[in-house]
Design a protein that fits this description.
disordered N terminus; 18% helix; alpha+beta; 215 residues; single chain; two-stranded antiparallel ribbon
Amino acid sequence: MKRTIIAAAVTISALSTAQAAGINGLANTGTCVSGTADTHYTLSSASSDTAISATAPIITFDNQWPITPWMANDGVSKWVTPTASQGQSFDAGSAGTYTYSLSFDLTGFKADTASFSGRMAADNAVSVMLNNHLISSATGFTSWNSFASTGGFVAGLNKLDFVVTNWAQNGGNPTGLRVEFTGSNVTPVPEPETYAMLLGGLAMMGVVGRRRKTK
């Protein structure tokens, strides 16, 4: 009986080392200082009437337009914009497209167990792409819209793109993005010694079971 308990404890211990963890690299927008680059994200512009020289978006200030009508910044996340002038007007004649990309590495984790959830807002519309596959879309900058994924992850490096479309308007037409992650999980790949412990525990339980049958 005592050996059975020990074997069970070894097995449970081995399994517990592979419990789910949060995904590193999923960062809210604007977690650093206002007016500086948000280096968690990279920025590219497929279409804009303004030359965008920055390779990372800029974190907005709390009390400058267009914060209101945009949702207010807070201590969890802030809006980011393509240039340091957060109220700059873009895309007077045709819609512009601005891609904010976030990379995260699942090396050492089971990609098929990964998941995340979050919320977003954009001026004007946003599509969310995980490894080039659409997982969500939304419009609006006065309230949150949810997004999530439980599949589509790959081993190693993954990329999450927030593709913002700024509708054309001649004047008073800023654009920006805001993202908050509300949860994430992924299971680590067990170390080789964990497998050894697991197999040893199961083997011990099998031996004890066979001995009981022969009595």
